[in-house]
Write a structure and sequence with these properties.
Distance between the termini: 16 Å
Structural class: alpha+beta
Strand order of the largest sheet: 1-2-3
Number of strands: 3
Low-confidence stretches: 1-34
Shape: globular
Largest sheet: 3 strands, antiparallel
């Protein structure tokens, strides 16, 4: 499942924290980047991102369109214990996402075997 598909779906992150991305239709959600190109980022629109921890604590911060969610959390110095334990190398499951069924059904790309194997390790994994 490509990250661009995840971002375009109005995702929720459960376990360590839950994430809601408001106003996704107002941005270009298919534009997700793992690169650190400041030239490309300078022209991007600022968007609001809200993280909600399992205990109900919420953090609403600003990020640039196309930033990955781990970088947004780091750049805003958020206290999200364990989030991004692998430093964004996709080698752990601390940042796994949980979708509403109707959002998941709209994802066009199929999970790879590697992604499914990583989900088997995810804390609090559900079928929903």
């Amino acid at each position: 499942m490509a990250l661009s598909s995840l971002v375009s779906s109005g995702m929720l992150l459960r376990g360590l924290c839950r994430l809601t991305l408001p106003r996704l239709s107002a941005v270009a959600p298919s534009r997700v980047s793992f690169c650190a190109s400041t030239a490309a980022r300078a022209q991007k629109e600022w968007i609001e991102v809200t993280y909600e921890k399992a205990d109900g604590t919420t953090y609403t911060v600003q990020g640039k369109e196309g930033d990955n969610l781990l970088d947004v959390a780091i750049n805003n110095d958020l206290d999200l214990d364990g989030f991004g334990a692998c430093e964004g190398t996709l080698a752990c499951s601390t940042c796994h996402l949980v979708f509403k069924k109707e959002d998941f059904d709209n994802i066009e790309e199929i999970c790879t075997d590697e992604e499914l194997d990583m989900l088997d390790l995810a804390y609090g994994l559900t079928d929903e």
